[in-house]
Structures are given as C-alpha cells and as structure tokens.
Amino acid sequence: MGGLIASASIISYAINPATGMIAFASLAAFCLSMVADAVAYQYLKSKDWMVRVNGSNIAGAAVDSIVFPTIAFGGLMPEIVALQFFAKLMGGGIWSYLLKKGDRHKADPK
Questions:
Q1: What percentage of the chain has pLDDT greater than the value 90?
Q2: pLDDT digits (tens, 9 = 90+) for 55-75
C-alpha cells in the first residue's frame, strides 16, 4: 500500500510539478496516518472488533486531518481539520457498522 501511495505521489508530481506540495502532503499524511492507525489497532488488539477498528480510525483520521491541510496549504487550519476529522470519523463509523452487520454469522476473530 505504501508503494502505491508513493507511486501516485510521484506520478502526480511528474504530470504537474505545480502539485508538488499537494503530492508531498498526501504522501506524508497517508504514511503517518497508516502508522498511527496500525499502532492504535495493535494497542487495542484485545478489544472487540468494533472498538479496534473505530479506535484505530480515530488515530489515523486525527493524524491525516492535521497533516494534509497543514503541509498542503502551509499552516494549521482548525476549521478544516475539525470538519475533515468529523467526516472521517462518521464515514469510518458507518462503514464499520455496515461491515459488522453484514458479517453477523461469523465469530469475532481477535
């Protein structure tokens, strides 16, 4: 996944060098949020599946919501960060609910 993200950033920059900061911000945000997500998921590994996925989503969403706009637009934008964070939390929560609902017949693997 990291290779795909790095490749996409390089291709974006190659097609249009003016997007350099956006491509770098995207790469940094993806990489850092993946690390935050994975660390949180491992920290919560003894918890229920819903707690694990939503807890790790909170960590990843927080990092991504802060890193991308700050790097891409050159400064911290609290309103943008808050709105992105809220949208990512709601989207992740809805998807985890739908996935769990659709997978009721299976036991929760820990």
A1: 75
A2: 999 999 999 999 999 999 999
User: In the prediction, which pLDDT does 107 show?
Assistant: 54
- Tokens matching residue 15: 């097609």
Determine the Cα–Cα distance for residues 15 and 31; give it in Å rounded to an integer. Answer: 22
65 contacts 81 by C-beta, under 8 angstroms: yes
Nearest to 2 by CA among 27, 36, 20: 27
Q: Residues in the chain, how many? A: 110
3-class SS shares of the chain: helix, strand, coil, % to 5: 85, 0, 15
Q: What is the mean pLDDT of residues 9-31?
A: 91
Query: What's the rounded mean pLDDT across residues 10-23?
Result: 90
76 and 25 in contact (C-beta within 8 Å)? no
Which helix (H) or strand (E) element contains residue 27? helix 20-43
pLDDT of 110 above 60: no
CA atoms lying within 13 Å on the CB side of residue 38: 6
